[in-house]
Amino acid sequence: MKSLSRWLLKVLGWKLVGEQPSLDKYVLIFAPHTSNWDVILLLLVRWASGLKPNFIGKHTLFWPPLSWFLRSIGGEPVNRTKAKNVVDQIVDKFHNKNEFKFALSPEGTRSKKDHWKTGFYRVALKAQVPIQLVFLDTRTKETGFGPLLYPSGDIEKDFEWLRAFY
Q1: 52 closest CA partner among 40, 60, 61, 43
Q2: Is the pLDDT of residue 111 over 60?
Q3: What span, in angstroms and rounded, lies between the C-alpha atoms of 85 and 55?
Q4: How far is the C-alpha of 10 from the C-alpha of 4, rounded, in Å?
Q5: Which residues neighbour 139 within 8 Å (Cβ) at sequence distance 6 or greater?
Q6: Inter-CA distances, 39 with 30, 31, 112, 135, 160, Å
Q7: Mean predicted confidence (pLDDT) in 16-31
């Protein structure tokens, strides 16, 4: 799958850049996420790099046979209308597993937003893990791994740094 994914990225005109960290635990954010096609590109990045992240998705997406596929690539359903303390549930996974890479889009949606949700930051801070930046640059057709951010607890300062990168 690794070779096929690298080949597909190349055929589609995309270049995979950067290296994923050799850490067992981190929060992985990808941005921007403005289209369902981003998911296809991110799957190719996943397979081309050997990354095996976990993620949560709307429970309504987890119906057979789609649920089998989503679970096979690390997905777990969450009912966002009923779920309480989702941040704490994810932090518990970090504490209870030897290896856990949690991926999500900071926008929380595919729509263009002028701000990001803060759940990913709160998870990383509470779990005491870094945030790995992954990007999709449609202008240069580059995708891949950016730097790590170790949350300082000063969300304003850290988000300013994130905005500068993205």
Answers
A1: 43
A2: no
A3: 16
A4: 10
A5: none
A6: 10, 11, 16, 12, 26
A7: 92
Separation between Cα atoms, residue 7 and residue 146, nearest integer Å: 21
CB 122 within 8 A of CB 91: no
- Cα diameter, the chain: 43
Q: How far is C-alpha 55 from the geometric centre of its chain's CA atoms?
A: 7
- Please give the share of the chain, as a percent, with pLDDT higher than 70: 90
Q: What 8-state DSSP symbol labels residue 61?
A: G
For 5, other C-beta atoms within 10 Å of its C-beta total 18
C-alpha torsion sign, points 28, 34, 40, 44? negative
**Single-letter amino acid code for the residue at 87:** V
H or E, element range at 25: strand 25-31
For residue 13 the two structure tokens come to: 């005109």
Token readout for 166 is 């993205």
The contacts of residue 40 (CB under 8 Å, 6+ apart) are none
**CA 153 vs CA 60, 114, 121: distances in Å:** 34, 22, 9
